[in-house]
Design a protein that fits this description.
The protein is mainly alpha-helical.
């Protein structure tokens, strides 16, 4: 059974054009071809990336964040309450008023105490600015190095300037060492992102991010196995170009360098639209859709690869819509957060009502200076809302 599935999965008519077999892609005459077995090395490299990220965020990103004035906010912790905690985990993070009344009776707490408990519990799950800064700094460093490495690997290649050269001599195109490392490192990085996505800051486009990472890994793996490496490197460098600017804009946003953040975000939007909505479909998808059939008949892998590219294009259109919404709000001065970010509550755990409750709980005793400061803070705008925030 297993042997049958294995033979069917690697059936040459799925992966390769007509009259071409896997034997034709065996190393010979000084030519080295990519093989599926080479991809096994991405598994340990994925965990190496996770380790490097941990060390980077702890020993490099955190000190940089502190020097930029970014600190970990300490939030009030919700008191242990099994009834409310079970409802919070299994039912809803923001219960309706009728549910609050029912929970009040079950937990023997007042309605106000239940509401306060859920506010504080939600506050515990909100990602801090320090966490966001560390994640963005790690991605920025990788995308920057990957983009520079991609330029170094491709600047002297004919297909970097003329996409028709992508298919010259296909599929008997020898793999270069620079292509090998470009692929392996990019795939390992996206593998680490896929494993860490459950622990990273959640966005409204969480599902789209999962689809993007999976589509990227499938595309890279498939292009590796069928020797679509030339077009694969072009796809990677086009994506890395705008990602560098996005992550840098986030870093300046978290550091509250507003004008710098705004300038970089506008530049990012321009580069994103040019690379993802113009170059990607009109040059790269055109290259994979039109030119291959001039060299060999269309086969399953040809259609599969182009469909996956179209999936990425659809994600690009979705993200471009969010970016344009942000630019529109930015121009009219109404942008206060990233369109991809979930609606975040005040990071200050105490609300004005809670401050009043604390006064009542004083039973006539003077309220401490720290409590007073907390109460005055409640009357101030939330600290996590930047006046002209562009990228979360």
């Amino acid at each position: 059974m297993f042997d049958t599935l294995y033979e069917w999965f690697w059936w040459e008519r799925i992966w390769l054009p007509v009259n071409l077999t896997w034997a034709d892609l065996e190393d010979r005459e000084g030519r080295v071809y990519a093989k599926a077995s080479h991809l096994y090395v991405t598994v340990p490299y994925t965990f190496v990336f996770l380790l490097i990220r941990y060390l980077f965020e702890r020993w490099i990103a955190t000190p940089i964040a502190v020097s930029a004035g970014i600190k970990q906010r300490v939030r009030l912790k919700a008191e242990d309450n099994p009834i409310l905690e079970h409802y919070y985990i299994t039912q809803c993070r923001n219960p309706a008023q009728a549910d609050i009344d029912g929970l009040s009776k079950k937990s023997s707490l007042s309605v106000r105490q239940v509401e306060r408990w859920f506010r504080r519990r939600r506050g515990q799950d909100l990602p801090g600015v320090l966490k966001k800064f560390r994640e963005a700094s790690w991605r920025f460093v990788f995308y920057l190095l990957a983009f520079i490495g991609g330029i170094v690997a491709l600047y002297d290649k004919e297909w970097f300037y003329d996409t028709r050269e992508v298919w010259t001599g296909f599929p008997k195109q020898s793999m270069l060492e620079s292509q090998y490392w470009y692929y392996i490192l990019e795939m390992s990085f996206y593998g680490s992102l896929l494993l860490s996505v459950a622990f990273d800051v959640k966005r409204k486009d969480f599902k789209e991010q999962i689809i993007h990472h999976l589509a990227t890994l499938v595309l890279l793996s498939f292009s590796w196995c069928v020797n679509y490496i030339r077009i694969g490197t072009l796809v990677m460098i086009v994506h890395d170009a705008s990602d560098v600017l996005l992550e840098s804009a986030k870093l300046f946003n978290y550091a509250k360098w507003e004008k710098t953040c705004q300038s970089i975000f506008v530049l990012f939007a321009m580069v994103f639209i040019v690379t993802r909505l113009i170059i990607f479909p009109l040059w790269l998808i055109h290259c994979t859709w039109v030119y291959p059939v001039q060299h060999y008949p269309a086969f399953f892998g040809y259609y599969f690869f182009n469909v996956m590219l179209v999936v990425l294009l659809c994600l690009h259109i979705f993200w471009a819509y969010l970016i344009l919404c942000m630019i529109r709000k930015f121009m009219f001065g109404t942008l206060t957060r990233d369109e991809r970010s979930d609606n975040e509550e005040e990071e200050s755990s105490l609300t004005e009502d809670e401050c009043k409750d604390q006064h009542k709980l004083g039973n006539g005793l003077a309220v401490g200076e720290e409590d007073k400061r907390n109460c005055f803070r409640c009357l101030s705008p939330p600290e996590n809302i930047c006046r002209s925030k562009t990228v979360y």
